[in-house]
Amino acid sequence: MRYLLVPLRAVLLVPHILIGIGIAFVAFPLSRTQARRNRINHWWSRWVLRLCGVRLRFSGQPLGDELSDTGIQAGRIGRMLLSNHISWIDIFAINAVMPCRFVAKADIVRWPVIGGMLAHSGTLFIERGRRSAVATMNEVVQGYLRAGESIGIFPEGTTTRGDGLLAFHSNLLAPALETGCPVWPVGLRYTERGKFSDAAAFVGEMGLITSIARMLVADQLEIEVAFLPPLDASAYQNRHTLARAAHAAVAVHFGLREALEQTKAAEDLAA
User: Fold this and answer.
1) 3-state SS of 184-225?
2) Which of 54, 56, 96 is nearest to 201 (CA)?
3) Cα-Cα-Cα-Cα dihedral sign, residues 269, 83, 155, 200
4) Are 152 and 83 in contact (CB under 8 A)?
5) How many other CB atoms are there within 10 angstroms of residue 18's CB atom?
6) Pick from 27, 73, 166, 186: CA 20 to 30 A from residue 246's CA?
7) Residue 134 in contact with residue 171, Cβ under 8 Å?
């Protein structure tokens, strides 16, 4: 039965992407508030998951006030979300629960169709490896946080299969310390029939079409989006200790002993 759904989902995904193009290039520029764009993004992202055959499950405290007209307002400090990174669809999985602006690698903006859609939806792009780019982005992120928006960051800096956890880089965490915003560790995990799955992993030289096809044929693919207890940025000495705390929170949630040992080793070295 599931193989009969594969061509149907693939056919329906095409017009949904076309709708997304119209939303990104027409509806978003005409939307007066970020809250309204968030509601559109929330709806569109949920359907991307469904049409790719990915079931969504979230745990913890969903942060849904960005969907209300009063959820984003001047004078209210936003949030920073720090998530592990497995696939291009991670952004849509988080947006399907709690829409936010993401910081992504600049090469993504050059992707056909999806790059332009993400750019017009408010994604912030950064050239990796350039100190000036990091400083500029931190200023931009700080401005959005002070405006009450939520910012999503993938501090591993790259994607993984999802069965491990790389160290969290701290370069983009300075705005959290400067604004005193809450920092929410977010854990992502893909499973098939309750067991670990790398069907959604977007690693190496894999192409986007290949990635979509792998998800479409997966057997009951599900993503868990876990919103873990927030961290008070003001309680940490610097961005490095904050990054390690967020890393440890995700590692503990998924029981990743090796990642926990790496965090402890980094803390011992810093001490």
Assistant:
1) EEEEEEEEECCEECCCCCCCCCCCHHHHHHHHHCCCCEEEEE
2) 54
3) positive
4) yes
5) 11
6) 73
7) yes
And the tokens for 38? 């968030």
Rounded distance between C-alpha atoms, residue 100 and residue 81, angstroms = 9
Q: Answer for the pair 189, 162: CB distance below 8 angstroms, yes or no.
A: yes
The pLDDT tens digits of the residues spanning 30-64 come to: 777 777 788 888 888 999 999 999 999 988 875 55
- Decide: 231 and 182 in contact? Cβ < 8 Å: yes
In Å, how far are 66, 73, 139, 229 from 97, measured between CA atoms?
Answer: 10, 20, 27, 16
Tokens 């408010």, located at residue: 122
Residue 159: exposure state from Cβ atoms within 10 A (0-12, 13-18, ≥19): buried
Instruction: Report the distance separating Cα 132 and Cα 111, nearest Å.
Output: 24
Q: Supply 161's token pair.
A: 């299969």
CA–CA gap between residue 166 and residue 158 (Å, rounded): 9
Burial class of residue 63, CB neighbours in 10 A (0-12, 13-18, 19+):
buried
Alpha carbon separation from 87 to 19, 146, 200, 252 (Å, rounded): 22, 29, 6, 21
Residue range 166-222, pLDDT digits in tens: 999 999 999 999 999 999 999 999 999 999 999 999 998 898 889 999 999 999 999
User: Residue 228's CB: how many other CB atoms inside 10 A?
Assistant: 19
Q: What is the pTM of this model?
A: 0.85
DSSP-derived secondary structure letter, 250: H
> Among all chains, which residue has been given the structure tokens 């509601």?
39
d(CA 162, CA 181): 28
